[in-house]
Design a protein that fits this description.
It contains five helices and nine strands; from the N terminus they run βααβββαβαββββα. It is α+β, with helices and mostly antiparallel strands and 170 residues long. The chain has a seven-stranded mixed sheet, sandwiched between helices. Strands 7-8 form a two-stranded antiparallel ribbon. It is globular, with a radius of gyration of 15 Å.
Length: 170
């Protein structure tokens, strides 16, 4: 498995990633096209293309915060799911980032949310905040009640949430 940092919005993989991103995540859980392309000019963001056997199978959108890595989006493309590739991607995250934070829907939302929560639990994450609210991604998009998960227990969750809001959603 290869993990390639995409450094330019004109990289040929970007449109395939954005198309899958747009089809997988509902509008209130994602950036619009311009906002997504703007990520490539932000030095705190890493968009990682995930390849397996020379095929682009998914991506990660990572934010480097002061003491943690925030996973804004993590997707294995539909045709590659249920092949344990997601666990290999979390292995990569753990090998390359000490403290990892991510947000997910409450497991009670639907069967997919329950499956995602179970996946993250099995792969070393636990809930650190059940009252987390993801800010709106823009006009007409509501803030969302989500859970914040991590592979560690932060000392100051309030400060961590404020940094996520300031850096990722400003």
């Amino acid at each position: 498995m290869e993990f390639l940092h995409i450094t330019s919005a004109v990289d040929y993989r970007v449109e395939a990633i954005y198309n899958s991103y747009s089809n997988t995540f509902p509008p209130e859980e994602r950036r619009d096209h311009k906002q997504f392309l703007d990520l490539f000019s932000n030095d705190k963001v890493r968009v990682i293309s995930v390849l397996n056997e020379n095929q682009n199978i998914g991506y990660l959108v990572l934010w480097q915060l002061s003491n943690t890595t925030f996973v804004e989006h993590f997707e294995v493309f539909q045709e590659f799911r249920s092949k344990k590739l997601g666990s290999k991607i979390t292995d990569y995250l753990f090998e390359n980032h000490d403290k990892i934070i991510l947000e997910i829907e409450h497991e009670t939302l639907n069967d997919y949310a329950k499956m995602r929560y179970t996946f993250y639990q099995k792969n070393g994450f636990s809930i650190i905040d059940e009252t987390y609210v993801q800010p709106s991604y823009g006009e007409g998009k509501p803030p969302l009640d989500l859970w914040l998960l991590a592979n560690f227990q932060p000392e100051d969750i309030k400060a961590l949430k404020e940094e996520i809001y300031d850096v990722v959603y400003h």
